[in-house]
């Protein structure tokens, strides 16, 4: 069994990769930072020495690099059983005062990367009539909020992509799940001081991915929303 997780050098992506490696999956991950990527690869491999861990330095905002990563994965693994589109950038701010070009940058990383990578890996899934695609959206995909800016726009778009893909994949037996976490204890929240129980651990998101995958093949969880017990921050 083979899994691909983008943006997996830390946070949710790394937690998912570690969990799937522990469950016996060969893992392909990517991230921009080479040092963080190497550290993540070692941590994922430590979960299960019997699996293969492929780690590629990729800028997910660059279409050419995304497509090269897809080809590397296909050459190494052939079929992909789980694809987790997790790569993303969180930049808060108001639409009327955020930096020029931010929308284009966030769209490239938060939406287009998932679009291009999914399209590149889909043919084999459709042919084999199996596979599960997880798109890491956000509570910002469901509800607009002040200071959401371009980030919220891209997350709304990613949810739309995921839901449309779900409809298209019904005849092919490929499952598609949108996961929309609220505040999760990742690097995106660096500098935010709060009690430990105010945010969710990324390992909980990994557990949700694994649970959804292990359901009967004729069952799919379409949309999952998770929030801290005390609500959004």
TrEMBL record:
Hydrolase listed as a keyword: no
Molecular function GO terms recorded: oxidoreductase activity
The entry's keywords: Oxidoreductase
Keyword Oxidoreductase attached: yes
Pfam families listed in its UniProt record: adh_short
Cross-referenced PROSITE patterns: ADH_SHORT
CC terms in the record's Gene Ontology section: membrane
Species this protein is from: Chitinophaga jiangningensis
Family: Belongs to the short-chain dehydrogenases/reductases (SDR) family.
Name under which the protein is recorded: NADP-dependent 3-hydroxy acid dehydrogenase YdfG
